[in-house]
Design brief:
The structure is a single chain. With 155 residues, the protein is an alpha+beta fold. Helices cover 46% and strands 19% of the residues. The chain is built from five helices and six strands; from the N terminus they run βββββααβααα. The protein has a three-stranded antiparallel beta sheet, with no helix packed on it. Strands 5-4-6 form a three-stranded mixed beta sheet. The protein is elongated, with a radius of gyration of 22 Å.
Length: 155
């Protein structure tokens, strides 16, 4: 790291703190040559490989906007969507990959969305699991019904 004041090539880290969300590190630095001090914010980059081959930066907002379409008219709050996007990003970052296919992101959204709303899940799954017929919908509904029946009743 270069000093932004004198361009000296060796700097010292005085303090490091992890952000509240755990996705970035703030470091306080000092130059041993000119004694200048500054902060850096370090994050691990995550890139998305889109279907057409274009690579772009990962965005939670894109997850929220895509899932919001599936949740249209459903009792799903903005807080639910923000939490889903955060959990999906955390799960992807936990894999340690720096690039991920957009379809993999869509598939990783499915289990999180299933816990929020089953109708929105079916809408979203029909795209990302490439449903081609009513049989695909019926199979997915049958799986959801089995899971619903096997849940223990809460009192």
């Amino acid at each position: 790291m270069f000093c932004p004041f004198c361009r000296f090539t060796d700097t010292r880290v005085i303090d490091s703190r992890t952000s509240d969300d755990g996705l970035s590190v703030r470091r306080r630095r000092e130059c041993p040559d000119c004694s200048g001090r500054w902060s850096t914010l370090e994050t691990a980059s995550l890139s998305v490989i889109k279907r057409n081959g274009v690579i772009e930066a990962f965005s939670r907002e894109k997850i929220v906007s895509g899932v919001r379409k599936a949740c249209q008219g459903r009792p799903v709050t903005d807080a639910d969507l923000a939490g889903l996007a955060q959990r999906v990003e955390e799960n992807i970052r936990a894999t340690g990959v720096s690039q991920i296919d957009s379809n993999e992101i869509g598939l990783s959204i499915l289990p999180e969305l299933r816990t929020i709303d089953s109708v929105a899940y079916l809408r979203f799954a029909s795209v990302y699991q490439a449903f081609e017929s009513l049989d695909d919908f019926e199979s997915a509904i049958a799986v959801l019904r089995l899971e619903e029946r096997s849940k223990p009743e809460s009192t």
